[in-house]
Every structure is written in structure tokens, then in C-alpha cells.
Amino acid sequence: MFSSFLEALGSFFSGSNTVSNLTLGGIQHPIALNNGMNVNLMLALQSVGGAMGNMICLNNIIAVCSILRITNSEGQIMKKTILPMLVYGRIAAVMALILAS
């Protein structure tokens, strides 16, 4: 159930859910197969995690600040979005546990 959090890190660093899916999908798919997990659920969690990472991705925060002409607030915005991201991740993990059983 850590798939979403791993993907969140991937999209945080890459700035893109798509790039992160392409990078980490090849890793998570065989892990799911080898551990007898539901592959579709694992890869769905991966996409959810990509959205989580985009919530705190510095590239996206800077783009929003630029459009809204907000200066020197990137850190504050990131601090405000980390908690909702973690809550979102917990909800995704609980839903995955429910769907897996």
C-alpha cells in the first residue's frame, strides 16, 4: 500500500505524473506480480500517488505563483498542501486495503 507514496515521490521529483508512471510502473508491476497482489489496484494506486506528488511538486507551485503573481510564498504553499496530501494518501491506502480484501 506504499505504492501511492512511492509514486508521490516520483512525481514530486519529476514534476509529472506521466513521467513518474513511466519510470516507476516498470518497477511496481513485477513487484505486484511476484507478491501475488492485484496488479490493476497497484497501478491505480500509482496514479493516485502521482496526483498526490503533483500537489506538492515545486514545479507546479512555482507555475501557480507565477500566474497569480505571488512572490516568496512557495514554502508556505507547500506547507499548506503537505497535510492534505498525506490525508489523501491515507484514504487511498485504506480504500486499497478494502478493495484488496
Automatic annotation (TrEMBL):
<keyword id="KW-0472">Membrane</keyword>
<feature type="transmembrane region" description="Helical">
    <location>
        <begin position="51"/>
        <end position="70"/>
    </location>
</feature>
<dbReference type="GO" id="GO:0005886">
    <property type="term" value="C:plasma membrane"/>
</dbReference>
<comment type="function">
    <text>Uptake of L-lactate across the membrane. Can also transport D-lactate and glycolate.</text>
</comment>
<dbReference type="InterPro" id="IPR003804">
    <property type="entry name" value="Lactate_perm"/>
</dbReference>
<keyword id="KW-1003">Cell membrane</keyword>
<keyword id="KW-0812">Transmembrane</keyword>
<protein>
    <recommendedName>
        <fullName>L-lactate permease</fullName>
    </recommendedName>
</protein>
<dbReference type="GO" id="GO:0015129">
    <property type="term" value="F:lactate transmembrane transporter activity"/>
</dbReference>
<comment type="similarity">
    <text>Belongs to the lactate permease family.</text>
</comment>
<dbReference type="GO" id="GO:0015295">
    <property type="term" value="F:solute:proton symporter activity"/>
</dbReference>
<keyword id="KW-1133">Transmembrane helix</keyword>
<dbReference type="Pfam" id="PF02652">
    <property type="entry name" value="Lactate_perm"/>
</dbReference>
<keyword id="KW-0813">Transport</keyword>
<keyword id="KW-0997">Cell inner membrane</keyword>
<feature type="transmembrane region" description="Helical">
    <location>
        <begin position="82"/>
        <end position="100"/>
    </location>
</feature>
